[in-house]
Write a structure and sequence with these properties.
CATH architecture of one domain: 3-Layer(aba) Sandwich
CATH superfamily of one domain: Class I glutamine amidotransferase (GATase) domain
Order of helices and strands: EHHHEHEHEHEEEEEH
Structural class: alpha/beta
Bound molecules: zinc ion
Radius of gyration: 17 Å
Helix content: 10-25%
Distance between the termini: 39 Å
Strand order of the largest sheet: 2-1-3-4-9-8-7-5-6
CATH class of one domain: Alpha Beta
Length: 234
């Protein structure tokens, strides 16, 4: 499998608290989760030409992971068009945490993706689809001692599957792990991962991300979006 990780890499440059949690950047933390014997990882950032997301890179990507927060607007629309085209043709897309407001996630879902939020909460996650491939090896429930609360209503297109539900110590609930299919591409959204918290160091979150990469990996990539005319079958 070939995985590309996009991280805007903006918090890391100005906030020592983020660097303390992610010494190699959030992309570095995520790369260490996903990299493996059968998984090659490439990381790209906002400051690269075309955000590092050229056709050449996307042609060579099975699954794209997306982390962004402060600089969604800085991602050029042509890059969003290109990523969307590749998802529709079969590339998997995993959108993390504040990526809910990224241009690509809103484009794929067609909604505002607005939600409620409050930092400094305790979260309890529940696996509500225990037989889903993304939940393999994940306990029925586990807690994150410090995570940003994201609350409903979450203005997303109706998910195909809600794999994880989040509950917060303010009483709020959230659809924390959701799947969609768009064209030939599989999409997964995962809520935990605020930049100053340690969610990506939690073993269960790491497992969920690895499982999601496997789940989103296409069987056939670069499928045609428009089927050519054919002769009728005999
Ligand atoms: Zn956040």
């Amino acid at each position: 499998m070939k995985v590309t990780i996009y991280n805007e890499n903006v918090h890391e440059k100005s906030d020592p608290n983020v660097r303390a949690v992610h010494p190699e950047g959030i992309h570095g933390t995520l790369a260490a989760i996903v990299r493996g014997e059968d998984t090659e990882v490439r990381t790209v950032t906002l400051d690269m030409p075309e955000c590092g997301l050229t056709d050449e890179v996307l042609d060579d990507t099975d699954v794209l992971i997306w982390w962004g927060h402060m600089a969604h607007d800085k991602v050029p629309d042509e890059v969003v068009d290109r990523v969307q085209r590749h998802v529709l043709a079969g590339m998997g897309l995993i959108v993390l945490h504040s990526g809910h407001h990224s241009k690509i996630f809103r484009r794929m879902l067609g909604t505002t993706c607005n939600l409620k939020w409050r930092d400094g909460a305790r979260e309890r996650l529940w696996v509500i689809k225990p037989n889903h491939p993304i939940a393999e090896g994940v306990p029925e429930t586990f807690a994150l001692d410090c995570e940003e609360m994201y609350g409903e209503p979450f203005d997303i297109a109706e998910p195909d599957e809600v794999v994880l539900m989040g509950w917060f110590n303010g009483g709020e609930v959230f659809r924390s792990g959701c799947t969609w299919v768009r064209g030939n591409g599989r999409i997964f959204y995962l809520q935990p991962g605020h930049e100053t918290n340690g969610a990506y160091h939690n073993e269960h979150i790491r497992r969920i991300i690895r499982n999601a990469v496997k789940w989103a990996c296409p069987v056939n990539k670069n499928l045609p979006l428009i089927c050519p005319c054919t002769e009728p079958l005999e």
